[in-house]
């Protein structure tokens, strides 16, 4: 009986991984679209035009609450980084393999799910990570943030300069509690991963992590919510 129960658990886990892969494959087109495509229509009433975000005046209504680290990074760093960038296309076998491996790790699976949620919500406003060209911060700044430093000393992590994306995201944060909760959850998940990742990561690995789609979402949401202020 015990063996049967274990088999059921393994089977259930494989089903969950397969379901997560199907969700990712379905979402790829959304993640990789650009503003040249018409953004999906949201089934909500028209919202007031969001106020422009002015440099130094980002909304700070999402203070980062640091959770105790419940997990450690058990994946090879290259696999984690590849998974957090998501597959490039539906034929990206290497990307899907990295994602499949990453989804077996609890901390990474939770982060991937949170990233999928915010990327999908952002796409509803025509905001896509491939469109953002952030100013890349030095690995030293990521390390200082991972080690708990906050304020202007790490402000360079909020290197998103696309004013349209900043304004739309700030407006959504104010007006949409579902989006706000998803953003808060994602930011906390990313921060926990970074704390676990940083101590054993090389500067090159930190730079590679910072260039992933997941990290770009963190930079955008962190800046709008005042995490780097």
Note down, in words, how this protein is organized.
By secondary structure, the chain is mainly alpha-helical. Helices cover about 55% and strands about 0% of the residues. The chain has nine helices and no strands. The chain is globular and about 35 Å long. The protein starts with a helix and ends in a 5-residue tail after the last helix.
From the spread of the alpha carbons, the general shape counts as globular
The overall strand count is 0
N-to-C span = 55 Å
Biggest beta sheet attributes:
none
Please count the helical segments: 9
What's the helical proportion of residues? Answer: 55-70%
Give the ordered list of helices and strands: HHHHHHHHH
Radius of gyration, in Å, reads 18 Å
Strand content: under 5%
Unreliable runs: 1-6, 32-70
The pLDDT mean sits at: 78
Could you say which structural class the secondary elements and strand pairing correspond to? mainly alpha
Oligomer: single chain
Kindly summarize this structure in a few lines.
The chain is 56% helix and 0% strand.
Ordered list of secondary-structure elements with their pairings:
Elements: H1 2-32, H2 77-84, H3 93-102, H4 106-123, H5 139-146, H6 163-175, H7 177-197, H8 203-210, H9 213-224
Helix pairs in contact: 1-4, 2-3, 4-7, 5-7, 5-8, 6-7, 6-9, 7-9
């Amino acid at each position: 009986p015990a063996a049967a129960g274990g088999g059921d658990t393994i089977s259930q886990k494989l089903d969950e991984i397969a379901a997560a892969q199907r969700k990712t494959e379905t979402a790829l087109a959304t993640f990789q679209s650009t503003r040249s495509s018409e953004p999906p229509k949201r089934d909500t009433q028209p919202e007031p035009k969001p106020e422009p975000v002015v440099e130094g005046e980002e909304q700070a209504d999402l203070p980062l609450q640091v959770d105790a680290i419940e997990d450690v990074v058990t994946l090879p760093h290259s696999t984690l980084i590849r998974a957090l960038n998501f597959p490039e296309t539906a034929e990206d076998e290497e990307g899907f393999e990295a994602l499949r491996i990453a989804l077996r790790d609890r901390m990474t699976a939770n982060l991937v799910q949170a990233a999928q949620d915010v990327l999908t919500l952002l796409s509803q406003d025509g905001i896509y990570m491939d469109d953002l060209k952030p100013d890349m911060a030095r690995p030293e700044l990521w390390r200082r943030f991972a080690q708990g430093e906050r304020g202007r000393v790490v402000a360079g992590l909020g290197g998103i300069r696309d004013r349209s994306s900043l304004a739309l995201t700030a407006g959504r944060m104010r007006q949409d509690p579902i989006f706000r909760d998803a953003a808060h959850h994602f930011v906390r998940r990313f921060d926990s991963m970074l704390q676990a990742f940083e101590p054993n990561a090389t500067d090159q690995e930190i730079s590679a992590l910072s260039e992933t789609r997941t990290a770009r979402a963190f930079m955008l949401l962190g800046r709008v919510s005042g995490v780097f202020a």
